[in-house]
């Protein structure tokens, strides 16, 4: 990392550094003022670049925000096989809880959701990123459990993920009552029972 | 209703009509432009009143929005006793699905949530309204089922409501994939199994 930053200023390296700086600035501004009040000027100022550096990459604010957010939201969560459904479930709930306390989930997603209701292009990009992500997690989690004989073969991966993500999202991002370990334990038991007995 | 509107223009009647017009205008503007871009001028114009009519009621935009939204969000859902947990659950899921497709849930709540992350007063008002509401629903739903012997006495009403609200909110308001009747059926079975067997 340090080496890369100190490397001779080849054009490719510089361009990457600038893109990272702009991406960080966009995420910061989105969290701080929201999409509606975000300006290219403020992003350029925070990233320490000229406005032309931004317009060279994206033709407008919408395009810039969509590409950056869907890139961040779509990064795949590393979901290792812990060897048991209980272990996998516990790990996913931990990862999701932590992710939902990050400002991307607590500020940027609600803000873009509100914008999405007014702008179909934002809606589609955001939903495609979320759904693709959710499907991958669901198929891996349920697939592993079915292969181990822990869940019925006809378990619906979508319902499974909704039962995990939904309550955590509702609690952490909407009603904002922090789930304590006892709550997480109860939720885990409930989700396991739901998938085994339905 | 018609009689009330045609009643002699007593001050009290007029004041109520104006408050209703302002409230409707605020909800409309919130859905249309969001909290950040909402202006007292636009609300007054849409409500057909002068700005003084607004400032006579609330000292600023934040106070006005908070009072109106928490009033609307806090209105109690009529939750009748259908005679069985399955019936109650089906009814609640129907009410919640419909409510989440209303613009209050799909536009105004996400927008205020994004603002809430920047403004603790909005956060507290919104969360108190949501939690009070959720608690009342949970206690009634679970209380009735326990009294009928359909659920264990130690069923946690909060977990129960999170399992119903969470997946529906996630699906309808966040990932925006419309739940079809088959999905609702699966979710109902899963939630019932979760509460009976955990």
TrEMBL record, chains A, B:
Keyword Transcription in the entry? The reply is yes
Domain HTH tetR-type, by residue range, is 16-76
Pfam families reported for this sequence = TetR_C_11, TetR_N
Q: Which terms are listed as keywords in the entry? A: DNA-binding, Transcription, Transcription regulation
- The answer to keyword DNA-binding applying to this record is yes
Q: Which stretches are labeled DNA-binding?
A: 39-58
Which PANTHER family does its entry note? HTH-TYPE TRANSCRIPTIONAL REGULATOR RUTR, TETR-FAMILY TRANSCRIPTIONAL REGULATOR
Which protein are we looking at?
A: AcrR family transcriptional regulator
Q: Which organism is it from?
A: Paractinoplanes abujensis
């Amino acid at each position: 990392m340090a080496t890369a930053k100190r490397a001779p200023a080849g054009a490719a390296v510089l361009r990457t550094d600038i893109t990272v700086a702009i991406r960080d600035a966009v995420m910061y501004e989105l969290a701080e003022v929201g999409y509606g009040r975000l300006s290219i000027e403020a992003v350029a100022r925070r990233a320490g670049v000229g406005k032309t550096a931004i317009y060279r990459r994206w033709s407008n604010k919408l395009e810039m925000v969509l590409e950056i957010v869907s890139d961040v939201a779509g990064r795949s969560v590393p979901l290792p096989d812990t060897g048991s459904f209980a272990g996998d479930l516990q790990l996913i709930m931990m990862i999701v809880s932590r992710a939902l306390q990050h400002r991307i989930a607590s500020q940027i997603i609600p803000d873009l959701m509100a914008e999405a209701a007014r702008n179909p292009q934002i809606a589609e990009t955001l939903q495609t990123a979320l759904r693709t992500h959710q499907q991958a997690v669901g198929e891996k989690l349920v697939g592993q459990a079915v292969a181990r004989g822990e869940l019925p073969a006809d378990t619906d991966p979508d319902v499974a993920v909704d039962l995990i993500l939904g309550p955590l999202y509702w609690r952490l991002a909407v009603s904002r009552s922090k789930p304590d370990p006892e709550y997480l334990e109860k939720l885990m038991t409930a989700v396991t029972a739901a998938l085994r007995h339905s």
